[in-house]
Sequence to fold (826 residues):
Amino acid sequence: MEQYKDLIFSASFFFVIIRVCVPLMFASMSAYTANLSGLPNIAVEGIMLIAAIMGVLGSVWTHSAWLGLLVAIASGILMALILAFSAIKLKTTPIMGGIALNVFASSFTVFLLFVITGSKGTTASLPSKVLPTIHIPIIKDIPILGEIISGHNVLAYICMITAVLVYILVYKTKFGLHMRASGLDENAARSVGINVNRVRFTSLILSGILAAMGGAYLSMGYLSFFTANMTASRGWIGIAAEAMGRGNFITVLLTTLVFGVFDAITNVLSLTNLPSELLQTIPYLAVFFAIIAYSIKEYNKKKRNNA
Amino acid sequence: MDDIILSLQEITKVYDNGVFANRKVSIDFKKGEIHSVVGENGAGKSTIMKIAFGMEKQSEGQIVYKGKPVQFENSMEAIKLGIGMVHQHFMLIPSFTVAQSIVLGNEPVKNKFFVDYNQATKKATELAKKYNFEIDVKAKIETLSVGAKQKVEILKTLYQDAEVIILDEPTAVLTPQETDALFIELKKFRELGHTVIFISHKLNEVKQISDRITIMKNGESCGTYNACDISIEKMTELIVGRELSTSFEDIKKKLDNTKAVLAVENLEIKTTKKHTLNNINFTVKSGEILGIAGVQGNGQSELIQAIAGMRSFTSGSIHLNDVDISTIPIKQRRQKGLAYIPEDRMQDGIAANASISDNIISTYYDSPEISGKVFMKNKSIRTIADNLISKFSVKTTSAKTKIGSLSGGNIQKVVVAREYQTDPQLLIAEQPTRGIDIGSANFIHNQLIDLRNEGRAILLVSADLTEVMDLSDKLIVMYDGEIVAYFESTNDVTDKDLGLYMLGVKKQSEEEIRRAYRV
Fold:
C-alpha cells in the first residue's frame, strides 16, 4: 500500500496529470465548440488521429516542428470542413458524417504509415521533429510547484491559454452568443437574422483546430513519433466529458480533469506489478460510471419535473 | 391613400398539393391603426400574414410597402424594412436573459467582438420603459410567465424598429388580465404611430380593440369594415357563412338505459411548480357527448393525455366501463374500447410517410382479422381501407397513396375513420375539426353524432366554442387546471356567460361542479 501512496502523492504524479490531461482537454474543447453551435462533432477521435500523423509527416517534409504543427492543424480543418459541408450543405446527419470520418481516419493513417515507412506500427524510423518543452523561468525553481507546472510541452501551455480564450469567446463575444443561440434554438436564432449555417461552419473549423492540436500533441510532444491508433479513444473521452458538461464550459473542463486524473493513476500504477491490461481499463470504467451517475441524476430530475 | 403603409394586392397562395390557402386577397393596412384579421381556423389568416412577413412566398399578387412594391426572400428582409411578427409559438431561448433575447442578432458591441452586456441591459430597460412594459430585463426567459414571454417577443420587434407589428393569435395563451394589459400596450403603439395587425378568431376582442377589421373565409377576403360599423352578429355570419347554430338537436336520438362509460375521479397532475390539473371529477355516459370548453392551455391537453395513456398523473383514477385503466398501457386501453382523435394529427394522429391503408390499420394491426400468424392479410386490409375511404369520402386515388400528401381535411377523415372502425366504447375527440374545411368538418360532426346515437360515449375537446356548443349534450368548462363549471344542457348557458367561466371570471360552487360526476 505504501508504494501506491508514494506514487500518487508525489509531485511527479501531478506532473503526469497535466501531461495526460492535455489531449483530453483539446478533445473535449473540440467537442464543446462544435456541439454548442448545434452541430455535434463525433469525429474528434478521427481528426486527432489524422492530425497526429500529418504533424509528424509535416515536420519531416519541412524540417520544422512548428510547420509540422501547421500541417496538422490544416488537416484538422479539412476534416472538420468535410463534416460541416456534408451536414450543412448535403444535409446528412452529422453522426453519419462523423462515423465515416472516424472509420476513414483509423484506416487511412495506417495506410499512410505503411506507404511511407513500410511498417504498420510507428513512424519512429522517420526523422520527425518534436515541439519544444518549456521551462518557465523563476517558477521552475520553486520547489514542488516548479516540478509540477514547469517542463511541459509547449502545447500544454497553449492548451491552458486556449481554454481561457474559448471561455471568453463563448461567454463574452458576439459570436459566442450566436453560437449558443444557434445550438439552443435554431429557429429562434434564424428569426432574428443570425446566419446559423455560417456560425456552424466557423464553429466546426474551430473544433477541427482544437482536435488537431490534441492530435499533434500526442505525436510531437507526448511521444516523438506516430503509432497506429495512438489516440486510444481520447477523442471519445473528450466527447463524453463534453456531454456531461451540458453546455457549461467550466463543468466540461472539470469533468475532463477527473478523467485525466484516472488516466494519470493508470499511468503511475503501470510502474507497479499490477496487470497492465486491468489498469488500462481504469479511465474507461471511470467514463462508464460517470455516465451512469449522470444519467441517473438527469432521470431523477426529469421525473421530478414531470410527475 | 398616402397613409397606407402596407398593401397586399390580390395575393394568391397555392400549395404544392394544389390546396388554395389564399385566393386573390387584398388588404390595405393604414399607418397607426389596429387592424384585425379574423376568420375561422383554416380561413387563411396565418398564411397571408406569413406572406406579408416573408416566411412564405405568394404564388401570385404583390406586396406594396410604403408605396414601393417589395418581394421578400425571407423574413429578415421584412424585418429590415420595419415589419415585425410575434409568432404564436414563441421564438425564445429559455436559458437566455430577457435583455439577451431582445438584442440577439443585433447586439451592442464593444471592441468590435465583445457583446456589451451593460449596454444591452440599458437599451432593453429603456425600451421597456418607453413602452410602459413592466419586466425585469435580467430575468431568465424560462422563469417568465407566458404573458411576460409575449412581452419579450413584442419588445424584440420594437428593438428591431418595427413599424408594422403582426401578432398571430396573441390572446390564445393569455389570461384575461394579461389580455387587458396587452390591449393597453397595443393602443399605446397606435398612439406612437405603429401599425398593429391583430390576428384572432375571438370576435369580442376584435371588436373591442380594432379600428378596422378584415374578415376572411375559405382563403378569401370578405371585405374590410370599420369596427364601429359592424356588429359581432354580422361578423359571425360572414365568418361562418351559415346560421350560427346549425342544430344537431333534431338528429340526436334520445337514449335510455345509459351508464357511465368513463369515470374520472380526483385526477391530479402536479409538477414542481404548480398544479397542472387539480380535483378533476366527471363522467361520460353512453350515448352522450360531453364537451370540454376552455381557453387553450388550461389543462385540457394534459387531461386528455392522461386518459389516453400518453402521460402519467400524480393521483386519482380513471375507469372505463368500471375497469380501472389508470396505469395500463395505451394498447390495453384501446383494447378495452378507447379511441382517440388527437389534437395534433400530423404529430400524433398519423405516420405521414406511410400509406392511407397502413394508417387506417395502425391502431389494431394485430387483430386476427387482418394479421395472420406470420404475414399480414393484405386482402382484408385492402377491403377495410377501400370501404372506409368510400364511406368517409376521402379524396384520394388509391389506398396506397402516402397520407401526408392529402389535404388536412382528408387526413383528418382518415384518422376519424380509423378510430370509428374499432367500434369504440369511448371516443376522445380532441379538436377534431381544427384547421380543416367546413365540408369535412360537417361530415366529421355527423359521424360523431352517429356514434353517439349508437350509444357510444364521446368526450369532445375544442377551442372552437361553436363546435362545443353545437355538438355537446353536457358541458364542462376548464380554467387553470380545474373544472370551473358544469352544465346539464348547452341551452343552460349563453356564449357570453361561457366566456366568463373560460376566462376564470366566474366559477360555480363546489356542489354545482360536483354534478359533473354522475353515477
Summary: Residues 167 and 249 of chain A are 7 Å apart (CA to CA). Chain A has a mean pLDDT of 90. The beta strands of chain A are 133-134, 152-153. The first helix of chain A runs from residue 2 to 8.
